[in-house]
From TrEMBL:
GO MF terms, alphabetically ordered: 4-alpha-D-(1->4)-alpha-D-glucanotrehalose trehalohydrolase activity
Source organism of the structure: Mycolicibacterium vanbaalenii (strain DSM 7251 / JCM 13017 / BCRC 16820 / KCTC 9966 / NRRL B-24157 / PYR-1) (Mycobacterium vanbaalenii)
Record-annotated Glycosyl hydrolase family 13 catalytic domain positions: 101-498
Family to which this protein belongs: Belongs to the glycosyl hydrolase 13 family.
Identification of the protein by name: Malto-oligosyltrehalose trehalohydrolase
Claim: Hydrolase is one of the keywords in the record: yes
PANTHER family tied to this protein: 1,4-ALPHA-GLUCAN-BRANCHING ENZYME, MALTO-OLIGOSYLTREHALOSE TREHALOHYDROLASE
Chief location: cytoplasm
């Protein structure tokens, strides 16, 4: 039986013992508050730590595997012998790419990594460049969105565990698809969070999801290292091509070197070591261009950032919705302003926040490809009261217009699973907390939150009801049927246009020209010789562009000076 060194950082307890398959072993505390013990252990040993006189065996904060859930012992894990076949994978930059966000548990009926592999050829045929998986770290229960992770180093076992993730990433690389992993470092979930028993992982502050992570108070150095090592692990050990970093505005860092800058530097060093590009994409609601400004120019060095302003501008202009944070959006002028400048709120007053918000983006220095444009994300569907998609409220033509505005823009583009065929499945908020009190609080809190905004509480799906999870699964039998198939072909053609037309690759917003008529409801985005002419109204309209039709939702009528575009339709023309 081989020897194995076990180690855990635990400054809080006075005594730490190691449990290996039910046998206790003493551990020695170092000056750095790391406890260590070297014992004989099988390669698949179950182990954990006993703190002081509490008999509960706690999982390893850096657990490589949690086969029995987040409340039980960890398990030693090493990849199966030679699992990788991607030695020829050269990687790719995320800038200018098309990203496809999916939730492993609802992407397929079985909800596993291996079942995602079975659908990868669909994504290849669609033309996307990256698969972005919602969080796959270990969290309480069998199913959930994944943002309540408590053991960040382990892979959620019901999805297939760490070996399943390796198979997925390897299969993606074999097909030319990059992989991004959604990583959550701004809070810990409520079920199975034992980290505070070991050390000062949490700060005195809080955010909407719970207590904040300690990245700037006493004891923060090891907590920062915990975050950095976890992030690098996804890219080094699991060959991910980058990370989507959840809600980075909730990472409150008062130190001189922000943790995102530190992570950016270490990611670049790992990319040099591996010989392939690695990308960090920030989710932030701050509209702060410093996130995507290179470190050498005083920024934090993120490769890209989600841009909700673009989503809001497109969605409201097409749908007419105005509630909540959509209140400042909705006009074609707002849509134009947002697409031309990256942010709509760039030091302007936000009625939703009731204060000024954002900072202008230097469009001559920062390419548009550092911002992600999308018409859907898990948030923009799942955080609606009943998790309804635009496909449940808009015409297929309106969905085509939204797709053309996002995929035809100079920005890096992103789709949410099923968007490409107008999936009829909602994406609702679901959880499976095993603790009855937590389960009840989650369900009641969800109903109370939306009831305060005027919804009938009885209409709000119960997150803990297994049917809420089942309803959210994609229905793949829709793909080849009727308007579903027609929209899918339109998406394929749009993405192909992005990849083949040189004018579509221009990343500079200063080169983007937009014309619109607020009253007539037409909107034209010019990409070099290409004109993306959208009719957001229900009636046909004459748009002052002409040329050869490259792609259209409904066949337009091209005249000498104008082109008639049907209601809720779009035509892309090339100037003669």
């Amino acid at each position: 039986m081989p020897e194995h060194e076990f180690a855990v950082w635990a400054p809080r307890p006075e005594r730490v013992r190691l449990d290996v398959d039910g046998t206790l072993h003493p551990m020695t505390r170092g000056d750095d508050d790391w406890w260590r013990a070297t014992v004989d252990a099988p390669a698949d040993a179950r182990y954990g730590f006993v703190l002081d006189d509490d008999p509960k065996v706690l999982p390893d904060p850096r657990s490589p595997r949690q086969p029995d859930g987040v409340h039980e012992r960890s398990q030693l894990w090493r990849p199966q012998a030679d699992p990788w076949t991607d030695s020829g994978w050269q990687g790719r930059s995320v800038e200018g790419a098309v990203v496809y966000e999916l939730h492993v548990g609802t992407f397929t009926p079985g909800g596993t990594f291996d079942m995602v592999v079975d659908k990868l050829d669909h994504l290849v045929g669609l033309g996307v460049d990256f698969v972005e998986v919602m969080p796959v770290n270990a969290f309480g229960g069998t199913h959930g969105w994944g943002y309540d992770g408590v053991l960040w180093y382990a892979v959620h076992e019901p999805y297939g565990g760490p070996d399943g993730l390796i198979r997925l990433v390897d299969a993606c690389h074999a097909r030319g698809l990059g992989v991004l992993i959604d990583a959550v470092f701004n809070h810990l979930g409520p079920s199975g969070n034992y980290l505070p028993k070991f050390g000062p992982y949490l700060s005195s502050g809080s955010n909407p999801w719970g207590e904040s992570i300690n990245i700037g108070d006493a004891g923060a150095d090891e907590v920062r290292r915990y975050i950095l090592d976890c992030a690098l692990r996804w890219m080094r050990d699991f060959h991910a091509d980058g990370l989507r970093l959840d809600a980075v505005h909730a990472l409150v860092d008062t130190t001189a070197i922000h943790i995102l800058e530190e992570l950016s530097a270490e990611t670049d060093a790992l990319a040099d070591e591996l010989g392939r590009p690695l990308s960090l994409i920030a989710e932030s609601d701050m509209n702060d261009p410093r996130l995507i400004t290179p470190r050498e120019h005083g920024g934090l060095g993120m490769a890209a950032q989600w841009d909700d302003d673009i989503h809001h501008a497109i969605h409201t202009a097409v749908s007419g919705e105005r509630q909540g944070y959509y209140g400042d959006f909705g006009t074609l002028e707002t849509l134009s302003e947002t697409l031309r400048h990256g942010y709509f709120h760039a030091g302007s007053y936000s009625s939703f926040r009731r204060r000024r918000h954002g900072r202008p983006l230097d469009t001559a220095a920062v390419p548009a490809t550092r911002l992600l444009a999308y018409t859907l994300t898990h948030d923009q569907v799942g955080n609606r009261a009943v998790g309804d998609r635009p496909s449940q409220n808009l015409t297929t033509g309106q969905l085509a217009v939204k797709a053309a505005l996002a995929l035809g823009s100079p920005y890096t583009a992103m789709l949410f699973m099923g968007e490409e065929w107008a999936s009829s499945s909602p994406f609702q908020f679901f959880s499976s907390h095993p603790e009855p009190e937590l389960a009840r609080a989650t369900a009641e809190g969800r109903k109370r939150e939306f009831a305060e905004h005027g919804w009938d509480a009885d209409e709000i799906p119960d997150p803990q009801d297994p049917e809420t999870f089942e309803r959210s699964k994609l229905q793949w039998d829709e793909v080849g049927v009727g308007d579903h198939a027609r929209l899918l072909e339109f998406y394929r053609s749009l993405i192909a246009l992005r990849h083949t037309e040189p004018d579509m690759a221009d990343p500079w917003l200063d080169h983007l020209k937009i014309d619109f008529d607020e009253h007539a409801r037409w909107f034209v985005m010019h990409r070099g010789a290409l004109a993306i002419a959208c009719n957001l109204g229900a009636d046909p309209v004459d748009v002052p562009v002409t040329g050869d039709v490259v792609l259209a939702w409904d066949e337009p009528t091209v005249g000498v000076d104008t082109t008639r575009v049907g209601g809720h339709s779009v035509a892309i023309l090339r100037a003669a």
